TrEMBL record:
Organism: Sporosarcina newyorkensis
Pfam family for this entry, one: YhzD
Name this polypeptide is given: YhzD-like protein
Lineage of the organism: Bacteria, Bacillati, Bacillota, Bacilli, Bacillales
Length: 61
């Protein structure tokens, strides 16, 4: 399992949430990240999901 990091921000740069979670691979992590964003009603906010190697898996401005 790998650890992924999801962050969401206000337009002014204020951090809304920062969460780490584990997933089997990048595809599973993307689904988990989308689910977390939907649950927290943050899908339309600025956000990013990064892999343990720093690869951006989800990004929205």
């Amino acid at each position: 399992m790998k650890t992924y990091k999801l962050t969401a921000y206000e337009k002014n740069g204020t951090l809304i949430t920062e969460e780490s979670f584990t997933a089997e691979n990048d595809e599973v992590a993307k689904e988990q990240g989308r689910q977390l964003l939907t649950e927290k009603d943050l899908s339309e906010r600025t956000h990013r999901l990064a892999s343990p190697r720093g690869k951006l898996l989800l990004f929205h401005v």
